[in-house]
Amino acid sequence: MTLARKDVAKVAMLARLALSDAEIDTMTGELSKIVGFVSLLEEIDTAAVAPLAHPLDTQNAFRDDVPAASLTTAEALQSAPRHDGECFLVPAVLGESGAA
Amino acid sequence: MQPAELSAVEIVAAIRQGDMTAVQCTEAFLDRAARLDGSINAFLKIDREGALETAAAIDARRKAGKPLGALAGLPVAVKDALCTRDLPTTCASKMLAGFRPPYDADTVARLRAADAVIVGKTNMDEFAMGGSNENSAFGPVKNPWDLSRAPGGSSGGSAACVAADMAPVAIGSDTGGSIRQPAGLCGITGLKPTYGRVSRRGLVAFASSLDQIGPMARSAADCALVLETIAGHDPRDSTSLTAEVPRYSELLEQPLTGLKIGRVAEHYAEGLDPEVRKGVDEAYAVFEAAGATVHDIELPHAKYGVPTYYLIAPCEASSNLARYDGAHYGHRAEPGTGHQAEPAGGHRAESGSSQHFDSPLVEMYCRSRGEGFGPEVKRRIMLGTYALSAGYYDAYYAKALKVRRLIRQDYLDAFAKVDLIGGPVSATPAFKLGEKTGDPLAMYLVDLYTVATNLAGVGGISFPCGFTRGGLPVGFQLQGPALAEPLLLRATDRFQRLTDWHLRRPKQTA
Fold this sequence. Notes:
The structure holds 2 protein chains of 2 kinds.
Chain A (H helix, E strand, L loop, with lengths): L4 H10 L6 H18 L34 H5 L23
Chain B lengths: L7 H10 L4 H19 L2 E4 L1 H16 L11 E5 L26 H8 L3 E6 L33 H8 L5 E6 L5 H7 L2 E4 L19 E6 L2 H11 L29 E5 L9 H16 L3 E5 L7 H16 L39 H13 L2 H14 L5 H22 L4 E2 L18 H5 L6 H6 L2 E9 L5 E8 L4 H14 L12
Helix pairs in contact in B: 2-3, 5-6, 7-15, 9-11, 9-12
């Protein structure tokens, strides 16, 4: 199993990870090897098997919709890299950003 | 009285009876940690001041005749994956350096309510991803039995601090073996409870359908004591179980007469170290001497456990770790200046990247994550994102979920025939630091005997069953059906009444 370098670069963007060209090269080799290994599962016939997303037969846990105390604004912001006391501050949401 | 020589059960009794104060006990462990941890690196943070303050308050309340909690005065070390309001919580990642959680994990809150004394936060593989503790951004933990060897992972700091008597009890978390494997490699006892038995609230999420918190200690009796405090329903974790919590420590006495233990043919595959095999075979003999019977069983899909796990866990991780965006908390890349964005410090990407970002915000996300995460975390996020992406979802993620059902069915079939399943925890004793770091796939295979427990959602316990000629601990694992913690603990406790492997101490840290 060999992944193409351009696919790894695309996945890096989907994952929101800035990777250097060298990291993408290394990752292409490593992921190819790992994907090859997990492809071992192909030998099992699962046509009649339903997926199991969760180990226990859990049911949705409902509760009454009543107001209760939650984090204060100050607590929610206490570890924020940038904030103005009320909101998290982030760079511009729109507009071009160049390659670097 | 030397607190480091006492079990957790003895410590709690001694403080309750007034034979020792909480301050004396806490100080003794803190002094050991101060003396020994420079060479072991089990702790990311030792909270000497806070721990002694808590201990003094407990002593004062005892003196005043006020009621005390079930763990009053017991020093506990907590894996740095659990949120603590008054202590940094980093998950051994630069991404969370300096992060102060605004709340305590449910387990931490329960420990505090029971008057346990939290002495510090333990080292681990970054975001609990690893089997050797070498993926910590703050340096590897050394195995107290041989400082040139890995303690296992990801709860390697918790295992090492108990093995070196720097704390009588530690809390770990186990997504694919992260409590049991380091417990086995460090010669201590570690329990991964049934999925949902202990609340995951405030445990930094890695793979939410697999993660479970559990106790690590010298013995099953000590694990039982801690589990009865930390287990229980939490309305704020919708996957936590509502089943009543038994008094585990009161259920240890019954003999093992008639107990059926399964021996799994697939555990004797190629790669099992002969000395580990010998220890495991001798452990079965101990159980037989205690009145149990051993039966050969099969787990036909055992060899698919690791590949199934290494699809499901990275997929869930890629989703869970999307929250580290540089905006709400954690590491943030300094703003770039258009085409010449210059990341600051951390895991700075090497110069030369052809990536193009759609907006300044997206660039900030990508650079923060590129700098904050270490190589293994990036690898797993990439693997999970790939396996979930359009065109690959059915071939990888959906396929793994189907095999997960087959693996769980193997367990259900096995538990129709036997009460518990035995076997090795790891194929080899503790390996050398650096031995597997160049080969991610070789590191994944250290989870061979442990991942299926999490995929099936059942419980498992590991404990020492012998030593190699070179003096390294060999671990034995018992797995049980859902909510069989009383039986796992009782069987292990009986084993520990008949053997003294769990009482051995490493010479280096005497």
